[in-house]
Amino acid sequence: MRQIKVFIFITIFIVFTGSTGSSSGNINGFVDVTDGDTIRFGTIKIRIWGLDAPEMNTDAGKRSKAELRAIVSGKEVNCEPDGTKSYDRVVAKCFVDGHDIAVKMIEMGLAKPYCKFSRSYYNEAAIKGGVDKC
Length: 134
Hints:
Layout: H1 2-17, E1 19-21, E2 27-29, E3 32-35, E4 38-41, E5 44-48, E6 51-52, H2 59-72, E7 77-86, E8 89-96, E9 99-100, H3 101-107, E10 112-113, H4 115-118, H5 123-129
Parallel strand pairs: 5-8
Antiparallel strand pairs: 1-2, 2-7, 3-4, 4-5, 6-10, 7-8, 8-9
């Protein structure tokens, strides 16, 4: 009986947090979008590594958020934390269907590389998206 209660508790926790961790430290599940470079697995906020989206008080920021929502909507997201934090957010590379979300956003011209961290990692995507490269 105790095992059933534990199983039910874990199942409810996963459903309400919207995420499941793996043994590798990755965070997987369905997300909510906070802005063009931040997503949320339940209460866990993720700053997408290497991505710098416009601020939400601009039209470009609103568009960036809407497009990020379209990219992740109804899809499982896999994030690989890099061990750092930014303003109480876990910094992580995030993927949908095996594709780097930052690459998609930069190639679409919706964000630019965050050069302080990504250096030249996303330069090819920046060229495709017509945004400044590092």
